Amino acid sequence: MSANGAVWGRVRSRLRAFPERLAACGAEAAAYGRCVQASTAPGGRLNKDLCAQEFEALRSCFVAAAKKTLKGGC
Amino acid sequence: MLRPAGLWRLCLRPRTAGVSTENLGRRKVASAVPPRGGTSPRALNIFDRDLKRKQKNWAARQPEPMKFDYLKEEVGSRIADRVYDIARDFPLALDLGCGRGYIAQHLNKETIGKFFQADIAENALKNSLETEIPTVSVLADEEFLPFRENTFDLVVSSLSLHWVNDLPRALEQIHYVLKPDGVFIGAMFGGDTLYELRCSLQLAETEREGGFSPHISPFIAVSDLGHLLGRAGFNTLTVDTDEIQVNYPGMFELMEDLQGMGESNCSWNRRALLHRDTMLAAAAVYREMYGNEDGSVPATYQIYHMIGWKYHESQARPAERGSATVSFGELRQINNLMSRGEKS
Question: What share of chain B is helix, strand, coil (3-state, %, to 5)?
Fold first, then answer.
């Protein structure tokens, strides 16, 4: 960590906003979670990007929530 | 800082690409018998102790350390309960990896005469909690205790041995500094600790990046713990399991609390970067797979409590083979046998 921790502080504050934005995307998160959980059932295999579609939906919702709070906040 | 002059480390190159999935989450104990008085030939160097010291120092310097103390306070009070259960008082005691002194605050002057608090992080020792027992703070590593043989009546250790590189050696050192008829009471995180977090991160990282690296440090299995205590020379072992489940609003809060406790990962084979996408995916998986109805997510902390005694002639020993005077078949007449025994 640098002397005044400026970069670390900035990154941390961004990270601290994650739970709020994730809460705004409950449905997409649940869909992604269900997709991953389904692959853990016997006979399922978890490969890379198996649930890419659901994750893209989650990510775009997350980014939209971020833009909204940014506009409203500062 | 106390460092013995002959400090050396066996630096094995940490296995990187070839880590098998069965070994993750379970700590395999070296099965070779160690030579007397030295580290075992395959002594592992899993954790970066320097980094752990920095992390603990950072955590102890947080503006509100009480916010993250709940787990250590709880386990500290359980260990103090076990100390009270032993009908003895201990003139000289040692707390290994004491942190801010979570055990000392629950004990009183009559039970413990003088308490040595040992930890690797000086900030934790400086901000120690109040206690009525006279204490001496020592900056010491759990694996390199700067004490003579047969010094302490009691050694306690609460939730710090899971960051020790050479656990067999640490237990042998504890046995060494104990007086005969001294007792060691310890608590360590066990195999199932934080399994929800570990699984969520593994699944999310596999799905997002095609592979995964360990983010949770390996924990000991209960059978290994019993073997290690026996090998270190302890008698009359007691190992029991406690499970504490704490509910968090989400995965990010859990990770923040773990960092605030000073329990961040410090393994040599840790990956320096955790992608934001992976974190987001893992939080979603965590909530979906393990979440409670009210939206919170549980985190399991499995604690192994252990009690071991150093040998002394006054301690009860198993009877000699073939010295039985009654057989199990006569168990029905146990009342007669007992009154017979009282009369004679």
Answer: 35, 20, 40
